[in-house]
Amino acid sequence: MIASPSRPISRRSLLKSAALYSCATQFLGSSRCDAQAPGGPSLKSLAQRSGRQIGVFGGAYLPSQPDRAQVIAREFSMIADGNDLKFSDRLRPSPTTYNFGPGDIALDWARTNGLLFRGHCLVWWNALPRWFQSNVTAANAKQIMTDHITTVVKHYAGRVYSWDVVNEAIYHDDRPDGLRCKPWLDLIGPEYIDIAFHTAAAADPKVRLVLNECYIEHDTPGEISRRASLLALAKRLKTARVPLNGIGIQSHLRGNTPIDKPGMTAFLTQVQALGLEIQITELDVDDVGVPGPMIDTVVAQKYREYLDLVGPFASLISFQDVADSPSLPKRPDGLASRPDLFDAHYQEKPAYKAVTQALDHLPKRS
């Protein structure tokens, strides 16, 4: 999604836009699986004991990556399709055509392996198709957006756990409401958010509809402000009877930045008071600024700290990726980044153990 000034864009953009290739060189076409089953309960069994789902981003590449696919099927109860269902060139190669092939492959894989499936995402400011700028105007933007949402949601109706309907609506664009100015707000106005949710609900009345947002977790002025704007937006939508079911918290954490525990606790309590479900949607820990010898320890501690704080409020805990990728750029000190639960060979890391401990201590959801 959006990059933070203290979080290099290379990791997220590569994970999102090149997911098909992130592990292919090492693992594609392997006839055996080097992933070792853990000695204790899976993440999935621990999460479900307390009434929660646990997920990770996946996509159409899973059938061709057996090692990754086996770990995901064993450890998780859900995948979210990271790239195949965005309003982008992949799904919308032209203004009049849709390519549901990759998304259908990902959904079929999930259903075959007994996993739930999340849709990500219907309306986003980024990754728009190449034809967007020359074809979408203030006069036709609403129709294009609603046609897109209706077509996509109806195609998957009854088969999706939840949709990220609007993704990253908040930014520091000097508006009192904190809304991001480009491009949907510029073309339609702030009501584009209301319209998007109403349109998705009409296309599939039973699916959960989520407002997904990034960078609200840390104790920094920008994230505190974004958190307040997100809460105000959620309150406005509820007051307007917009069919909003939940708030998605992306949860891209930074190992060298404190989590705002009091602020997050207050925010989560207020969101719950609105009757909204809370989902952790893209959890990972960036080891930026963490001394090399302490990477694994700090990353594990951050996962545990965050899940101890936010986990009790959440119905879903979903991760950005399952394993560290050798194809990602190295840190400035030359070391490989190690933000995930498994290493590049799908061996458990301290982060995996920290997450299992956090899951094991979560209270049961009522």
What would your notes on this structure say?
This protein has one domain: Alpha-Beta Barrel (TIM Barrel). An 8-stranded parallel barrel has the order 1-2-3-4-5-6-8-9, surrounded by 6 helices. The radius of gyration is 19 Å and the shape is globular. The protein has 13 helices and 9 strands. Helix 3 runs parallel beside helix 13, helix 7 packs parallel to helix 9 and helix 10 runs parallel beside helix 11. The relative contact order is 0.15. It has 366 residues and is of the alpha/beta class.
Topology overview:
Blueprint: H1 9-17, H2 24-27, H3 43-49, E1 53-58, H4 66-75, E2 78-81, H5 101-112, E3 116-124, H6 132-135, H7 141-155, E4 162-167, H8 184-188, H9 192-203, E5 208-213, H10 221-239, E6 246-249, E7 252-254, H11 261-273, E8 277-286, H12 295-310, E9 316-319, H13 350-360
Parallel strand pairs: 1-2, 1-9, 2-3, 3-4, 4-5, 5-6, 6-8, 7-8, 8-9
Helix pairs in contact: 3-13, 7-9, 10-11, 12-13
Could you give a quick summary of the protein structure above?
This protein is of the alpha/beta class. Helix content is 37%, strand content 14%.
Give the CATH topology: TIM Barrel
> What can be said about the biggest beta sheet?
8 strands, parallel, barrel
Q: State the name of the first-level CATH class.
A: Alpha Beta
CATH architecture: Alpha-Beta Barrel
Determine the CATH superfamily.
Glycosidases
- The level of helicity is 25-40%
Question: Strand portion, in percent?
Answer: 5-15%
Number of helices: 13
- Number of extended strands: 9
Rg (C-alpha, Å)? 19 Å
Number of domains: 1
What is the chain-wise order of helices and strands? HHHEHEHEHHEHHEHEEHEHEH
What low-confidence regions span 5 or more consecutive residues with pLDDT below 50? 1-37
Secondary structure class reads alpha/beta
* First-last Cα distance: 32 Å
- Summed over residues and divided by their number, the pLDDT gives a mean of 91
* Coarse shape: globular
Widest sheet, order of strands: 1-2-3-4-5-6-8-9
